[in-house]
Amino acid sequence: MVAAFKMTRKLLDAPALAAYSKRDIRTAGVESDEQIRAVLKTYADTVYHPVGSCKMGTDPAAVVDPTLKVHGIRGLRVVDASIMPTLIGGNTNAPTIMIAEKAVDFIRQGR
Predict the structure, then answer these.
(1) Which residues fall within 8 angstroms of residue 104, CB to CB, at 6 or more apart?
(2) Where are the beta strands (DSSP E) in the chain?
(3) What's the pLDDT score for residue 68?
(4) pTM of whole model > 0.70?
(5) With contact defined as beta carbons under 8 Å apart, do 77 and 44 qualify?
(6) Is 71 a catalytic residue?
């Protein structure tokens, strides 16, 4: 991450891009690796969308059944991206909406 920070700064300081930069609002004066790590800890974020912590299925490792009900806990469903077995190739927003809409159908049907 420190190396990537330094490379990004080098690219942004290049004459072709420097003209578009008005001022450095977060990293001005940040030079040492220790300072860079501190900035990264403060401002870096991930766009990773966690999935898979509440596996759906009928096997012993599954947390929820195919109607999203938690095995062994009456009246509780999981209705989010955690039921997806793996991270999909795109954004998780649309599949999560689909999961929610399917849950609504299950609930309305009394399933």
Answers:
(1) none
(2) none
(3) 97
(4) no
(5) no
(6) no
